[in-house]
């Protein structure tokens, strides 16, 4: 059988207590795969370990056990193959929007001329509607605009995979909706593989091909994987007209409200 583009096997993470002894794992036995070009969202209550998993996929953190294989190679440390967008935009405050994007582009293609780097970077800022703000500093941008620069910066390095940690969490509903639409159209145009954390079930249904539902920690697991079978040409304004929509939405909300804490992990198989 062919391997998925990204394969996560037996991931667990525990932290030591004050005396240095390992505590109960925050999450354990986390297994899932992501196909090339797939958009996968992960949903679960606060503290179940979503950000930790994303950081492990990014190579910014290490799991206590388990392995992450991307495109046939084990992930060990950060790489330009993976672009990350954090909840707080993490822009360099002394550089303009354009220079912030150019920074990554120059590292990705060190042989490019200044003009090439600039043109490529400006193109991605235009895609997120920031043509008019290329030369503004982060302090001169709104929260939504900063987040757009972060998204342009991540897309501009054309990573094999994009990792998004609640990228719209701090935005007002209107801005959030507009940027979700922009993200959807860029992802559709580029076929980018995406792993995204969100707390918003409607956002997940709009964007995802499949949604990973995590049970509560400690010892959190991927309790369920929900395939989103709504046609791919989804739009925020019309999605709720689809006959499947409320069934999927109710299923996700029911998991979060009623079932995420009752999830009983299967016992480990006895060694033979
Ligand atoms: N350095 C650390 N030492 C001890 N515990 C930690 C450390 N870092 C994270 N944790 C614990 O690991 C758990 C998972 O944290 P993580 O941020 O991954 O969760 P999350 O699901 O992303 O939460 P949220 O939705 O609130 O962002 C939390 O209970 C947190 O307290």
Automatic annotation (TrEMBL):
SMART domains, A to Z:
AAA
Q: Recorded GO terms, molecular function? A: ATP binding; ATP hydrolysis activity; nitrate transmembrane transporter activity
Signal peptide per UniProt: none
Which PROSITE patterns does the record associate with it? ABC_TRANSPORTER_1, ABC_TRANSPORTER_2
InterPro entries linked to this entry: AAA+_ATPase, ABC_transporter-like_ATP-bd, ABC_transporter-like_CS, ABC_transporter_ATP-bind, NO3_transporter_ATP-bd-like, P-loop_NTPase
| This protein's GO CC annotations | plasma membrane
* UniProt subcellular location: Cell membrane
Topology of the protein relative to the lipid bilayer: Peripheral membrane protein
Write down the PANTHER family for this protein, in alphabetical order.
NITRATE ABC TRANSPORTER ATP-BINDING PROTEIN, TAURINE IMPORT ATP-BINDING PROTEIN-RELATED
Q: Which family does it belong to?
A: Belongs to the ABC transporter superfamily.
Q: What is this protein called?
A: Nitrate/nitrite transport system ATP-binding protein
């Amino acid at each position: 059988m062919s391997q998925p583009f990204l394969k996560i096997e037996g991931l667990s993470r525990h932290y030591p207590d004050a005396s240095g002894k390992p505590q109960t794992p925050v999450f354990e036995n986390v297994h899932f795969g992501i196909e090339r070009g797939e958009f996968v969202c992960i949903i679960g209550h606060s503290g179940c370990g979503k950000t930790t998993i994303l950081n492990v996929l990014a190579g910014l953190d290490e799991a206590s056990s388990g392995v992450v294989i991307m495109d046939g190679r084990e992930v060990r440390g950060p790489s330009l193959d993976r672009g990350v967008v954090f909840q707080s935009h993490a822009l360099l405050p002394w550089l303009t929007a354009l220079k912030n994007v150019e920074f990554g582009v120059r590292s990705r293609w060190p042989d490019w001329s200044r003009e090439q780097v600039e043109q490529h970077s400006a193109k991605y800022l235009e895609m997120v509607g920031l043509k008019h703000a290329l030369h503004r500093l982060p302090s001169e941008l709104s929260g939504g605009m900063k987040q757009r620069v972060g998204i342009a910066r991540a897309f501009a390095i054309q990573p094999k995979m994009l990792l998004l940690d609640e990228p719209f969490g701090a935005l007002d509903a209107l801005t959030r909706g507009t940027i979700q639409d922009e993200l959807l159209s860029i992802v559709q145009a580029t076929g980018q593989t995406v792993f995204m954390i969100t707390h918003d079930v409607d956002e997940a249904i709009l964007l995802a091909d499949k949604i990973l539902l995590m049970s509560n920690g400690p010892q959190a697991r991927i309790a369920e994987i929900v395939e989103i079978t709504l046609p791919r040409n989804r739009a925020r304004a019309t999605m709720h007209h689809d006959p499947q929509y409320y069934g999927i939405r109710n299923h996700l909300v029911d998991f979060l409200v009623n079932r995420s804490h009752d999830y009983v992990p299967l016992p480990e198989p006895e060694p033979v």
